[in-house]
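hi! just following up on the protien thing from before. the input was this:
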Amino acid sequence: MKICIIGQGYIGLPTAALFSRSHCEVVGVDISEEMINNLNKGIIHIEEPGIANIIKNAIENKTYTASLTPQKADAFIITVPTPYIAENYSCDLSYVITACEGILPYLEKGNTVIIESTIAPMSTDETIKPIFEKAGFKIGEDLYLAHCPERVLPGRIIEELIHNDRIIGGVTPECAKKASEVYGQFVEGELMLTEAKTAELSKCMENTFRDVNIALANELAKICAEIGVNALDVIEMANKHPRVNLHSPGPGVGGHCLAIDPYFIYAKAPETAKIIKLARDTNKSMPDFVCNNAEKIISEGKIAVLGVSYKGNTGDDRESPAYEIIAKLSQNYEIAIHDPHIDNPNFVSFDDAVKDANLILVLCDHDEFKHLDYESIKNSMENPIIFDTKNIIKEVPEEIKLFNFGNLYELN
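and the predicted 3d structure came back as:
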């Protein structure tokens, strides 16, 4: 089977890797000439365990090629970004539409087209299907169209693409069947066949569920800081209940899923989706909450920011709340940023970040930050203070003051 995958980012490239490892002929398409040239040399641009070796082997075995343009294939998979439109929170389908229009010259009767990009409910039927019908295809008869969203965790993408159950949402039952045959090349989880609109809303709702629960924890942290209770203790005690699983509060929600997908539902029914919007507002407010408390801790000086990735132990900084926090604090403080998982010429080493700093602000739960070099910190900072917004530092020497979401009430 030959498969053409449009988009070679955090989902497209791992997907291409697994199809190529399963003896499919894969063409990975992207608009970045630098990325395409690097991929064909076996140089990948994302930090994800296992992918580099798979791609290198696939290039050697001629089962993977990166290209700026699509090629004829048996199946086409669209994995391009879908941001939201700020004015009305609706799903921006422009990249998906462009990708679909871009493959039209290469389509043949009997092909399968799969949209993996997360899209708003009804998008496949109302917006995407007409593109191919206008080109003369009969969906479900000579072209098979489906929406098959991914559900993976950065740092475990390869494992989860293989083992997680997969939603296969066809425009028609035959479309779902054809798409399931594509994913059957490597997916070992259950292939759950359904309608495209059900698949669309299921994916959005999975991430909305998580966003709402994170918002509950973040709201609790705010309440506790206001009334003088240790939020982390409350969560630990409450979670001893056999049917309670409160999340951990944090500096905000990042990533291309949780920070965006709930808006796609809200935009479809804004008068009804009140809990969804309130949860988004709560999580969007956390950068301000972090900045306000940082300003209570120190009124001036240098802040060493540890981590900008939205997900620990990855270099994925999409929609990371860290950048909003940094932008706000940089108006009044000197900022030095250290993130061992992101290659940025403006970032500095850990030692340079903490040297003469007045506050260490932890914004990401990288393993490297769970056990810091406290001797170096004591030698580099006159009055060592850490504000851990990820609640990952459990104990510090008595010479170091630690703030987290459990004791912010001390600042009031």
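The chain has two domains: 2-203, 286-411.
The chain has a mean pLDDT of 96.
cheers
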